[in-house]
């Protein structure tokens, strides 16, 4: 078991990481929240059939009355209507302010379920149990919860920290190879911005089996990096933007294809490589860095090129311009393992995207 403490004053919490942790969650929740009598598990139609009953049993064994709220799997569920349905179900279950919401799933479940917990009765305790690699190393840590609006992704939300994050790396066994690699793109990102040794470690695994056999150490390294960043910038006004390395172009790629062709991690992979190829040409990043990134991305079947004209991606980004004003903060690599914020004018964006 590895424990990473996220030191956020009265909102501090622990991230616990271990293979086979799920059956212990009930006892841990009962100890953490002794006044809780009811627990609502929010999960989705992919994850619930695999793990929800196991979690329910663990909670019941710890003396909690449990209800399950299951949403349709997929990003299309992350909306106000589903949020409203979830809130109604929480109310119907007789939950009180001393009870607890547990989110069991990937990013959509964590984001929507976390926002439901933040808003139900003006806030009830919630616990994240992320089941995808992407959620285990990124979205479950740091308290960003949200739903999408018609106007864009994550436009209604809050910063609302969980009481604990329980990461059972055994749950990754049922993840498809594509989504294992999708999450790995974010792990490679952490290596690029903060930890060259982590980058080299990911680059060195013989294959996916070797990676999975050691995945606990990768998850712990990523969560520790994220915890240290979130502690310094909980509300995302500065340093936390480092986590956006590869995301500006990545989001444009995802959006250009209607979020249905490239996964989030695949978009980020393209963004990391393409931006670094440019900053290398501009003398910001040392020669050879983009090639090292390309090699590791390719090894895990992650794309480096979206196969679309950059001008079309710029058009997509321009639609978001009003959200950002006349400048944009890009994350560039000073070297592998050291990301930096670089504020540039919109006019300069094409130069950075090639
Ligand atoms: N996923 C980026 C952040 O939590 O800030």
Q: Could you report the average pLDDT, rounded to the nearest whole number?
A: 95
Are any ligands bound, and if so which? glycine
Q: How many domain regions?
A: 2
CATH first level of the largest domain? Mainly Alpha
User: Within the CATH hierarchy, at the fold level, what is the topology of the largest domain?
Assistant: Dehydroquinate synthase-like, alpha domain
Overall 3D form? globular
Low-confidence stretches: none
CATH architecture of the largest domain: Up-down Bundle
Overall description:
With 354 residues, this protein is α/β, with parallel strands linked by helices. It folds into two domains: 2-174, 3-Layer(aba) Sandwich (Rossmann fold), CATH 3.40.50.1970; 177-353, Dehydroquinate synthase-like - alpha domain (Dehydroquinate synthase-like, alpha domain, Up-down Bundle), CATH 1.20.1090.10. 46% of the residues lie in helices and 21% in strands. It has helices at 25-32, 48-61, 80-92, 107-119, 133-139, 177-194, 196-204, 208-213, 215-232, 247-256, 264-281, 289-299, 310-319, 321-324, 349-353; strands at residues 2-6, 13-18, 38-44, 65-71, 100-105, 125-130, 144-149, 152-159, 164-168, 327-335, 338-345. Strands 1-2-9-6-5-3-4 form a seven-stranded mixed beta sheet, with helices on both faces. A hairpin with a 2-residue loop joins strand 10 (327-335) and strand 11 (338-345). The radius of gyration is 20 Å and the shape is globular. The termini are far apart. Glycine is lined by residues 138, 142, 144, 236, 240, 243.
